Amino acid sequence: xxxxxxxxxxxxxxxxxxxxxxxxxxxxxxxxxxxxxxxxxxxxxxxxxxxxxxxxxxxxxxxxxxxxxxxxxxxxxxxxxxxxxxxxxxxxxxxxxxxxxxxxxxxxxxxxxxxxxxxxxxxxxxxxxxxxxxxxxxxxxxxxxxxxxxxxxxxxx
Length: 157
Prior knowledge:
Elements: E1 5-7, E2 13-15, H1 23-30, E3 33-39, H2 47-57, E4 62-68, H3 74-84, E5 89-96, H4 98-110, E6 135-140
Parallel strand pairs: 3-4, 3-5, 5-6
Antiparallel strand pairs: 1-2
Helix pairs in contact: 3-4
């Protein structure tokens, strides 16, 4: 049995058995449209994933799905942002391993600025990101990456 706890810091971190079932209600509070970022298929094809997707469809929101088949690339981030820039996105939700969470963070940040994510990459970019982002929820399904606890996103060529 896992004891429930809540970190008293920003961003908020929830940890307890079954907390993922609260996601549809949390998403509903943001209203409008949201992007769901997942890995290739392991979550969306799992019984828990299917149940959660069904619960999310019952809310009065519009979901746009982005699948991340591996390490996120600049081209993948740019395509996800371009495909969703005009969709009145209010929230980005990433569920999965480090790649899905990193992609979600990058998409969330890039929806608030113009240009390619390449323009903002350390070492090769020529623009400084202002630090803005869409509201973002990270739900790790693997242990060890820590992507949900950092502001950085790993983007690979």
